[in-house]
Design goal:
The complex is a heterodimer of chains A (420) and B (496).
Chain A lengths: L15 H4 L1 H34 L29 H34 L4 H15 L3 H15 L3 H6 L5 H4 L2 E3 L2 E4 L1 E4 L5 E4 L7 E4 H31 L6 H19 L1 E4 L2 E3 L2 E3 L2 E3 L1 H28 L2 H9 L4 H31 L11 H13 L2 H30 L5
Antiparallel strand pairs in A: 1-2, 2-9, 3-6, 4-5, 7-8
Chain B lengths: L22 H9 L4 H25 L9 H8 L8 H12 L15 H18 L5 H19 L1 H19 L7 H14 L4 H16 L1 E2 H25 L1 H30 L3 E2 L9 H28 L3 H16 L2 H15 L8 H27 L2 H9 L4 H31 L11 H9 L9 H29 L5
Antiparallel strand pairs in B: 1-2
Helix pairs in contact in B: 4-12, 4-18, 5-6, 5-9, 6-7, 9-10, 10-11, 12-13, 12-15, 12-17, 12-18, 13-15, 14-15, 15-17, 16-17, 17-19
Classes of the chains: A mainly alpha (420), B mainly alpha (496).
Chain lengths: 420, 496
């Protein structure tokens, strides 16, 4: 093989595919693509061969068959006669439920711990450091089973309530038992009823018109409150004095909402001890609580570090400059420090939300029926369709992840420093 | 001027500061009780600490270390609250080694020195990579001492002779570094760095030595696997000058693959006939406890590092298809939870491979965890690459280095150095994630704790087992995270 090339000679030779940088990148890419396709084809043919040998033609028809198992914690109505698809949907909603609950509590807890860690109070900052190190250095699965064990082993059983050894907390409205927590549920005397959507199919769901009415009034109130704030801003910019508006802003949110609640006849259904168990109220099962708490405290340790790093990242000159302008310390925080710190905090915060959502798949360890427990657990074991269920499971998580990271990219783009 | 009698002519003696601003009281006033909010916070924290300790300490210090079952514990405690530490006393070895042969079964001998030695060698192999915190001489001394432990564990007259020889060699190599004079010591360290071989040689051998130690079998299989790399390296060195670097690389990879596919078997059996060196073979299903966690973590990180580097380079590259493939792989793996990948390992991996392929579950889990770690590693390395100033790339181009030479000589040494803290935290993450394998039925510490509870004597022991496992994980992960923070400080070469 000759390696001499003459630049004046314009003819194409085969060796230029390797030695001419104009063509070499094409060669490498095509080789990589062919290699990848060969690998993919090899896996496909192996899979097809293996599945034929096992007598399992790949098909998703099993999703339409009756599931035959119960799901005790659910957001939509479901019976064991419903299809595997509906079971998966219930599981997906459960995943989203615990992820949303976990993200909220983890954020609240994490921000508190992160701020406390920066406190000048020696003992408080050390205590927060101990919290962070203790919780993030032990696997989250261990925390989940640990909290589950605490709930089961240390809380009183419903029979203890009967014998009077335990009593309900918060003015007899909440029953904390080793079978779960019973909390009051909102009931409406003049209920507007439900809207049945997609009735008859596996994806059917009901929408409470009461909820829609309340939300509509609430959102309208918040928007009006925003208008009042904008008007106050305008007046402040024009005249220099800001009219007191807080009672207006509070009023337009609270009063219409309260009126709607009264009109609907809101009252609470309290849990009551009947027979061997509590009846009425909303039942939060141990598995949900254990998972929720464990994911929250574990993720909160990471969020605390993110918050701390974000606040420390703002140079001291910023707060000093704000002080020199005469801003009080709470205005310094809300107008100068936080807007800048949030730019540092939010991207890793969202990636921690993503981690929390992915970690919620560990629900299977405590029997919480999330999408991994339904689709990847019982459905897979009952139908023997490993390929299809695991594929669907991955697609669902991938969709959630890509949605969240899409939101993150959009946010990053919108808060990026605009430099000249 | 002299009659300005109202001006004091001599200095007043310094007064001692008020008692309330010095000593513990002063410190407490400045740090704990400066203001109402802080005072409340302090008191709340103290109460919290007291409550936790009051609940925990009596439970922790319970005299049940020698009890043989939960009932015995209850007898000893006599109605008081307390932990039942007998379960840890009886089962800690199992929690560490799983069912690795410990000589208790008839006809078997204690093999646990093998994971022990592998663990020691891990440090010897990793230290020169992570940071030059000890001199080259000390590293060789450590290696000799670790090998002496191995020889001691093998036992027999030959083993004892080997122990003596190895320790003598360690003393011979090391004694110069133990001079009391600082200057001589520094000079010896300097000289050692020139005379002694690079400890990275052992780091290169380590990945082939450890599987041999843990799984056993003939050593020649592992030597053969290593020889594949050696052959590929030689082929590249001699061919690249003849046919160019790209073609040389392709050919050397082909040489290695052909060697691994067709030549290892004959090579190993031939060498076995000449010089049989073998350790007793241990099945994977006997791996368990923390040994399993550490094995999965270390193997996954070790193999995922080169894969991650390749993926990161792919993601940074200008080649559209290569970039798309890398991004697709990384984002796919990072977008799904590890548990789904473990489901793939336990149910699907055999379906993806040619019919009749069947290898054991731990190997399958290792493959999937490695792929998982590789995606995260790629992002860490990419961060390191992105942190390098553009001038470094341009300088490499200006020197006329080709892509691979620039990567090898200029980019990668710096980028990897920046990424070390990230690599360590990825390792911590993967190590923590190894408990997930208990969900697919492997006997990692968490899986073993369920197995122990299935025993009649320990049915109902929860806190002690979880507490012990959590404590062990905490010790491992906390020390590693501290170390990575230390590295971060050492590596921060910017403004101090």
């Amino acid at each position: 093989m000759t390696t001499t090339t003459d630049p004046h000679q314009g003819q194409f030779r085969l060796s230029m595919l390797l030695y001419d940088s104009r063509y070499r990148s094409m060669t490498i890419q095509i080789v990589a693509l062919i290699g990848f396709l060969l690998l993919l084809g090899w896996i496909f043919s192996n899979t097809a061969q293996n599945l034929t040998d096992l007598g399992k033609e790949p098909s998703f028809r099993f999703m339409g068959e009756p599931a035959g198992y119960d799901i005790n914690q659910r957001l939509l109505e479901y019976s064991n006669q419903d299809t595997h698809l509906r079971a998966a949907l219930i599981g997906l909603l459960n995943t989203l439920l615990v992820a949303a609950l976990g993200c909220i509590t983890a954020t609240v807890l994490g921000v508190i711990i992160g701020v406390l860690r920066l406190s000048p109070n020696w003992i408080v900052s050390r205590l927060s450091a101990v919290y962070v190190e203790a919780f993030r250095n032990v696997p989250v699965l261990l925390w989940i089973v640990f909290i589950m064990a605490i709930l089961i082993e240390t809380l009183p059983s419903p029979s203890a309530f009967r014998k009077g050894e335990a009593s309900m907390s918060l003015w007899d409205s909440v029953a904390v038992t080793n079978r779960g927590v019973y909390i009051p549920e909102p009931l409406f005397t003049n209920s507007l009823g439900n809207l049945h959507l997609l009735g008859g199919s596996s994806l059917r769901f009901d929408v409470s018109l009461d909820l829609i009415a309340i939300l509509a009034v609430l959102i309208a109130g918040i928007l009006t409150s925003g208008l009042i704030k904008r008007r106050a801003d305008r007046i402040q910019e024009a005249t220099g004095t800001r009219p007191a508006t807080w009672y207006w802003r509070l009023g337009v949110v609270v009063i219409p909402t309260s009126i709607v609640l009264v009109l609907l006849g809101l009252h609470w259904g309290y849990p009551e001890l009947k027979g061997f168990n509590f009846q009425g109220g909303t039942h939060l099962r141990n598995s949900l609580i254990a998972l929720w708490l464990a994911l929250s405290i574990y993720t909160a340790a990471f969020i605390a570090e993110i918050v701390r790093a974000g606040i420390l990242a703002i140079s001291k000159g910023q707060s000093e400059a704000a002080g020199a302008l005469g801003l009080r310390s709470n205005r310094t925080m809300s107008l100068v420090i936080l807007p800048q710190a949030l730019r540092v905090i939010i991207p890793p915060l969202i990636s921690n939300y993503l981690n929390l959502t992915k970690n919620s798949s560990l629900a299977i360890a405590v029997g919480y029926m999330d999408i991994t427990g339904t689709l990847g657990g019982i459905t897979m074991n009952q139908t023997g369709r490993e390929l299809e269920t695991v594929l669907l499971l991955m697609l669902v998580y991938l969709a959630i992840s890509l949605t969240i990271s899409g939101v993150m990219n959009w946010y990053n783009e919108s808060v990026k420093l605009r430099e000249r | 001027m002299s009659d300005m009698s109202y001006v004091r002519s001599e200095m007043l003696p310094e007064r001692t500061p008020p008692a309330s601003s010095v000593g513990f009281v002063g410190w407490a006033r400045a740090n704990l009780f400066n203001g109402i909010v802080n005072s409340i916070l302090t008191i709340v924290s103290l109460v919290l600490i007291f409550l936790v300790l009051a609940a925990l300490l009596p439970w922790l210090f319970s005299p049940t270390w020698n009890s043989g079952s939960l009932n015995e514990c209850r007898d000893i405690l006599n109605g008081h609250e307390g932990a039942c530490w007998g379960v840890i006393n009886e089962r800690w070895e199992q929690l560490l080694y799983g069912f690795y042969p410990n000589g208790s079964e008839a006809g078997s001998i204690d093999q646990r020195w093998r994971p022990n030695l592998a663990f020691l060698l891990l440090f010897v192999a990793v230290i020169p990579v992570l940071f030059n915190m000890i001199s080259r001489r000390m590293n060789w001394v450590l290696l000799l001492v670790a090998l002496a432990y191995g020889a001691y564990a093998i036992g027999g007259t030959l083993g004892m002779i080997a122990v003596v020889v190895l320790l003598a060699a360690a003393v011979f190599v090391g004694y110069k570094a133990f001079s009391s004079d600082k200057a001589t010591r520094a000079a010896e360290i300097e000289a050692g760095a020139k005379r002694l071989p690079n400890p990275l040689i052992f780091t290169a051998i380590f990945p082939f030595l450890v599987p041999f130690l843990l799984w056993g079998g003939s050593i020649w299989v592992f030597v053969g696997a290593a020889l594949g790399f050696v052959l590929a390296g030689l082929a590249y060195r001699y061919l690249s000058t003849v046919v160019g670097s790209l073609a040389g690389m392709i050919i050397s990879v082909l040489v290695a693959i052909v060697w691994w596919l067709f030549m290892i078997g004959p090579f190993a059996s031939a060498m076995d006939a000449i010089l049989p060196i073998a350790l007793e073979q241990i099945e994977s299903r006997k791996f368990g406890g923390f040994m399993l966690s550490i094995t999965i973590g270390v193997v996954a990180i070790g193999i995922s590092l080169p894969i991650g580097i390749v993926l990161a380079l792919g993601r940074q590259s200008d080649l559209l298809i290569v970039k798309a493939l890398s991004v697709g792989f990384i984002e796919f793996i990072r977008g799904v939870p590890l548990i789904t990948l473990l489901f793939v390992a336990s149910t699907l991996l055999n379906i993806f491979l040619p019919p009749g392929t069947n290898f054991d579950i731990i190997l399958r889990v290792l493959i999937m965890v490695t792929l998982f770690a590789a995606a995260y590693m790629a992002e860490v390395v990419r961060g390191g690459l992105a942190a390098l100033p553009k001038g470094q790339y341009e300088a490499a181009d200006a020197l006329g280095l080709d892509y691979w030479k620039a990567q090898r000589l200029i980019i990668m040494p710096q980028a990897l150095k920046i990424s070390i803290p990230g690599i360590v935290s990825t390792f911590i993450g993967v190590f923590k994630d190894t408990v997930l394998v208990s969900i697919i039925g492997l006997l990692d510490p968490l899986g073993l704790s369920n197995a122990i509870r299935a025993d009649q004597a320990w049915n109902g022991v929860v806190w002690e087992l979880y507490g012990f496992i959590a404590f062990m994980f905490f010790v491992f992960c906390f020390s590693m995270s501290r170390y990575s923070m230390y590295l971060e400080r050492r590596l921060r070469t910017g403004h101090k």
